């Protein structure tokens, strides 16, 4: 059985009197970041102790320059997911697909589908 990790919300650790809306916004961003961390990206984490998927090494731009830091498209996807989580609304599939299409070059598709809970063999 998988171990359930209790989410740590930074606002509560820093300031116990944080407004509820700020806590919800931070929790939404933490959940969205966690979703993005499940995507099998190319390259490797900079450090074995690194908890987030980005920044990474071995990832290059179309011009062959190694990327440093986190690409803005990753932040945009995170903000989109967090906004829907915070509002408690359903994801707009086309909007999310558009954001994922923008990071297609950063995904290592050899590891299966994005957010797939179990590996599925490719049959085509």
Describe this structure in words.
By secondary structure, the protein is mainly alpha-helical. The chain has one domain. It is 40% helix and 3% strand. The protein is built from four helices and two strands. The protein has helices at residues 10-14, 20-37, 72-87, 93-102; strands at residues 44-45, 56-57. Strands 1-2 form a two-stranded antiparallel ribbon. α2 crosses α3 (72-87) and α3 (72-87) packs antiparallel against α4. Residues 1-6 have low confidence and may be disordered.
Provide the fold topology.
Layout (H helix, E strand, L loop, with lengths): L9 H5 L5 H18 L6 E2 L10 E2 L14 H16 L5 H10 L22
Antiparallel strand pairs: 1-2
Q: Can you give the helix content as a percent range? A: 25-40%
* Unreliable residue stretches: 1-6
Main β sheet profile: 2 strands, antiparallel
Class by helix and strand content? Answer: mainly alpha
Query: What string gives the helices and strands in order?
Result: HHEEHH
Question: Total number of helical segments?
Answer: 4
- How far the N terminus sits from the C terminus, by CA atoms, comes to 32 Å
Strand order of the largest sheet: 1-2
Cα-atom radius of gyration: 16 Å
- Average pLDDT confidence is 82
Number of domains: 1
- The fraction of residues in strands falls at under 5%
SS elements, strand count: 2
Q: What general form does the structure show? A: globular
């Amino acid at each position: 059985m998988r171990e359930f990790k209790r989410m740590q919300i930074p606002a509560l650790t820093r300031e116990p009197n944080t407004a509820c809306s700020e806590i919800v916004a931070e929790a939404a961003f933490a959940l969205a970041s966690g979703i993005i961390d499940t995507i099998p990206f190319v390259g490797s984490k900079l450090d074995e102790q690194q908890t987030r998927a980005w920044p990474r090494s071995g990832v290059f731009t179309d011009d062959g320059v190694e990327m440093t830091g986190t690409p803005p498209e990753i932040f945009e996807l995170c903000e989109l997911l967090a906004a829907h989580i915070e509002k408690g609304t359903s994801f707009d599939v086309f909007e999310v697909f558009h954001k994922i299409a923008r990071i297609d070059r950063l995904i290592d598709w050899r590891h299966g589908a994005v957010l797939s809970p179990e590996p599925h063999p490719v049959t085509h």
